[in-house]
Amino acid sequence: MVREVLRYPHPALKQVAHAARDAAEIARVSADLVDTMDAFGHCVGLAATQLGERARIVVVDVSGHRKATSSNGRLVLVDPRIVRAEGAEVGREGCLSIPELTANVRRATTIEVEADGRRFRSEGVRGALPAARDRPPRRPALPRPRGLPHCGRVQAGKSALMRAIVIDEWGGPEALHEADVEAPPVGPDFVLIRNRAAGVNPVDTKIREGGLAGAFPSGFPLILGWDAAGTVEKVGPAVTMFRPGDEVFAYCRRHHLQYGTYGEFTSVPDAFVAHKPEGLSWEEAAALPLAGLTAHQALETLGVRGGEELLISGGAGGVGHLAVALAVGRGAHVIATASPANHDFLRGLGADPLDYHDPDLPARVRELAGDGGADAALDLFGGDGREQAFAGLRRGGRLASIASPPPEPREGYETHYVFVRPSGVDLGELAELVDDGHLKPRVEEVFPLERAADAHERIEGGHVRGKLVLSVP
Ligand SMILES: NC(=O)c1ccc[n+]([C@@H]2O[C@H](COP(=O)([O-])OP(=O)(O)OC[C@H]3O[C@@H](n4cnc5c(N)ncnc54)[C@H](OP(=O)(O)O)[C@@H]3O)[C@@H](O)[C@H]2O)c1
Asked: Mean per-residue pLDDT for 166-191?
């Protein structure tokens, strides 16, 4: 069964395999065992068995809003169309055959694992696997580079070193400093990127402070940063979609916090990478991955359609301005909140702006959206903004939030929490929108790499219009 699945070496299936590996990681399954079981059903089933009483696994099929849940370490599939996990108890209609498994694995979008009081939300897949005839032609085999790539200063007999901005302990912006560190390892399905620019995101500051230390394992010296744009320096032996010299960009979230993008090189699974749109500078390309994927995946979750009224609570920042542009591109009427200084910026993106300080904001939303209120709302900052968003929604409306804590279910509304997933497939869709002239990230300021601390102070101020980016020499 596992071998059959492996006949489909598409990034989407790899993502599922990674997700399953994550599930198994939480179950503390032997890494060797997991590495040999590179298939979603098998690994999740294995994880379910290993987790025993402590875990609950949820496979979410967003297209059908059905869920498969496990308890007592047995994976019980509520909707047997989703996937059969080997070694697990199967739902009402019994086992699925190989073709059904591969067909339905495309539909699994998210895997959540709760274990030992922690919740893990995996990368999943969305969209169909391309039919064989639609797949991009396989690139001819390239001569494989020998040994380590040339990464900055290489010392005889030692590992390749590179320049990076690191922290040696959790702390404020002053904890960031330059250092020569070992270049990141490149796994079989990894791409080594020579960074030209690195995006700065609010999450970088949270990681710097140790705010994600409980959620991700980490190692010091720790290179921050999850957004990269640059050229491919080297690929692992299993990589077929990229080759040295390709211009790429990627949301490089790794499950182990150590090898980020604030440095000369970063390595990342090939499934997270896409070719850079030609029309974007390195800085613009590095501004797009995390924020663009968040905006795109949140709008997908909301199912925003042309003709709908969408309220975006927080429209001028990194995620917000891209969400406005994407929703306008879908044909929605967008009402977006910001302070008055950003209203012309929002108008330029095609939105009707409102001031989030206005105590009568829900009434203003109704004036613009019609008496019933907005069909859908995207909440980027939580707190009062989330309450204003609920108050501006029509009865039965949908709200998706990216802000913590996740929204509680609320009677009369559909609520979602979105945690961005790395996805080369989704990035490719964004790149097409850029190429077609429908999307362009706004870069407010570019800082040289060594001024990363200034960029952190700036983003912690909370009022960046668009994105901040580090240029990498
Ligand atoms: N769940 C996820 O996967 C995920 C992914 C990405 C980001 N996030 C989180 O989402 C939030 C937004 O991320 P970001 O990258 O867009 O941040 P950002 O670029 O730093 O946002 C800056 C913008 O936020 C606006 N703003 C600040 N407070 C606001 C409020 N109360 N209401 C409306 N607008 C407000 C500011 O507009 P004004 O200057 O006009 O006030 C500014 O333009 C962050 O907390 C981030 O950590 C979560």
From this structure: 95
